[in-house]
Amino acid sequence: MEDGVDDDLGRGNSGSRVSKGKARERDEPSFIGESSFVRAPLNSRVSISPSINGKGKARADSLDRVPIDIQEALILEDLLYVLMGIPGTYITYPSDYSPEDEDPLQGVRLVIAPSLDPSLRDLVERILPLATYYTAITSFIELRSHLDFGLVNHALCAAMREMLKDYQTLLAQLEHAFNTSAQFTLQKLWFYVHPTLHTLSVLYLLTTELATADDPSGSASSSQSPSTSDAEEEARNEALGLGGAKLKAVLNEIDKNVNESSGIAVKGGEVLAVIYERMQIMSGDPSASDVYASLLRSAGKPYVEMVRLWIQTGRLLDPYEELCVKESKFIDRGTLEMDYTDEYWERRYTLRDGSTMGGSSKRHQAGIPAPRTEGGRLPGGACVPPVLERWKHKILLAGKYLNVIRECGIEISRDPGHAEDEELFMDEEKFYKAIEDAYTHANRTLLSLLLRDQQLIPRLRSLKRYFFLSQSSFLTHLLDLSHNELRKSARSASLVKLQSLLDLALNTDAQGEDAMFREDVKVTIASSGLYEWLLKVVSVSGVIGGEEGEGAEGNAHSHGHASHGKKKGEDEKQMLAIDALTLDYSVKFPLSLVISRKTILRYQLIFRFLLHLKHVEQSLSSMWIEHKTPTWRRPTRQAPIPASTSGTSRSTTPSTPYPPATPISTTPDLTDKEKDWHMDFQNWRKRVFLLRARMLAFVQQILAFATFEVLEPNWRKLEGRLEAGKVETVDQLLRDHVDFLDTCLKECMLTSSKLLRAYSRLIVTCSTFALYTASFTKSANQALAASETPEGDQAMAKRWDFLSKFETNFNHWFKVHLDCVQFYASSENVSLLPLVVRLNSIKTAS
């Protein structure tokens, strides 16, 4: 009996196929009139969807009287079309279907004829999602194969297309079985397509997530927001020609296009991140995990090749901005000579997500795209694949190091431990080992280039010698040679003359290793005073950095200095050349990465700080020499002595190193008024001596502290790390160098506004006092001359008043400075403790 049923079913199937073929020949239009026939012959069924719906309705009524085995044969034939995305006779588009309104990435929507037997309907409803999945995946492949979506999307689409080939092969086999075997049933069809249904559903979920990730989120809400314009505003817009539905539609379309163009497509690293996240979510399903793992390997091939080219050659080939590394082509190495932020190293090659080695992120800066959602993943190439998250900095640095070597014109040697043609995949341990090896090789190569070929350590020693004055005989020679030039205003001083005098001083003084690199040292004139500039910087937390709790006071003080600076700008003669004198140092690439403009600026600040101390010390020492002249040393009176022994007493008096310029009175007694004047004048001279000695001691103690207890120990630490090979990476070398300079600046009290203010007032007081050397000597000569006149000296009170201003100012700021140093030494800067001891040795005048 079963054989008979099979024969009947076979005959019924063949009869139905013949009748259906004749009906199709009658109803289908000629292929000559079908414009899309050459492009897609099966589209003839889609283009006449209204007639198909009508024919399907007519047939639906007749299915009530059709035996179930015939219904199964008819629906089987329909399913073979439907599974390829072509609507059939009994499985058609819904009545409200419109190609313009449907999203092809969501797949087709199909409905089954209501007169189909329920038992068959159940199986058909299970199979129908295959058509939705297939059409959605096909549309996704067609869309994402466009050039703008990048190489990763192209590789993903190629992998999906390979999977769909297996699906299409299965459909061809099913159609062959349907045409040749009478035993082919709907149940067998379900049995064969069931595994494929799961695979396509996995692909459909992935394509749906990728398709919806880059949709503009605000367009729907903005278009649905209610209008708030009233009738009066609408009338005004109409009068101005801004009203009308057509114009509003045009404006809405423009806004829509702008919103869509401003978005970043899902490409590059974001595609790989989505696949990886789907793989982790479906980790409990082995077949789904295998599908996603296969897609991740296939889609990641272009990404791996870009990473491999970058870390092995230093060349960035990323035409569609898919890689996590970004190149700013407008920044070249020429900017190193003028840019104080060293953009070439810091911004020429960066990570697209804005992260740095220190763990900080710059996502709010310009050029860093906003995440898709609040706290979500970044779009496009800015999204680093999760499997490479911990390797991204090594990827960046490996290529960056090699790029520097390429910029020097040096051929990059291949790492012998790597096979060039070895195929790598993103989820393999070999790929991560290749990144680690490339990073180590590039780092070792660039470090060797800097330390050995470019002589970095001798360069740093020369910087220490010239800027930290470790052997400052050349500076003393320069100050002596250029004494007259440095007394001019900063605007009037001749740079050419100063440079020639510096060359003369260096050529006279330098010998052996000290003579190296002296031609790279140049003289420059700064545009502003050292302390005014530093106070402005630290008060706004600039490159040197401010301190908490100093904002208001620091800003107020900086405004005061700014206004003072404006007054100086009006009259440049107020700033002498000695106050603006500084050195510059020129190096070539790649040493300019380490000895950059940013670090040269720090060297210049420390040099100007030491130069000012040296100059004030020299001025006070000159004042000390001046105070050894007879005007300051000879006594103004003598006790009564016998005339016969006056010459002997005069020659043996220890307080009289020089013979008196005028005969000393040998009168037996002086009047009380004369005694008071003589005592007052001698006390005035002693107070001048004492103030000069205290100022000189202060300057010498600050200079000794800065050189012996700050600069030299910190330099020894840096030099020891470099010579011992403890610096393992180039970035660590750059950080250690900048940290060394920042530590020196901090311990020299150049980064605190309170310490800077007190110290600047003190040092200006000392230098101003030294400038009045000739004035004090002239005043002393006038006093001695006036004391021999009958009227006597009447200007002693003015001298005391003038001297007391210096004393009061120095004592006040010395106490403020000492208090600040003690506070910082006990709270945050322990290195200032030796300075506290040194300053306490300078006693305050009673």
UniProtKB/TrEMBL annotation:
GO cellular component: gamma-tubulin complex; microtubule; mitotic spindle pole body; spindle pole
An example Gene Ontology molecular-function term: microtubule minus-end binding
Cell compartment(s), UniProt: Cytoplasm, Cytoskeleton, Microtubule organizing center
Keywords attached to this entry: Cytoplasm, Cytoskeleton, Microtubule
Signal peptide: none
Coiled-coil annotated residue ranges, if any: none
Biased composition (Low complexity): 213-229, 644-655
Residue stretches making up the Gamma tubulin complex component protein N-terminal domain: 76-451
Keyword field contains Nuclease: no
InterPro entries, alphabetized: GCP, GCP_C, GCP_C_sf, GCP_N
One family name in Pfam for this protein: GCP_N_terminal
Residue ranges of the region described as Disordered: 1-32, 213-236, 355-375, 549-570, 634-671
Biological processes annotated in GO: cytoplasmic microtubule organization; meiotic cell cycle; microtubule nucleation; mitotic cell cycle; spindle assembly
Basic residues biased stretches: 558-567
Domain Gamma tubulin complex component C-terminal, first and last residues per copy: 456-840
Key word Electron transport present: no
Family: Belongs to the TUBGCP family.
PANTHER family noted in UniProt: GAMMA TUBULIN COMPLEX PROTEIN (PTHR19302), GAMMA-TUBULIN COMPLEX COMPONENT 2 (PTHR19302:SF13)
Name of the protein described by the UniProt record: Spindle pole body component
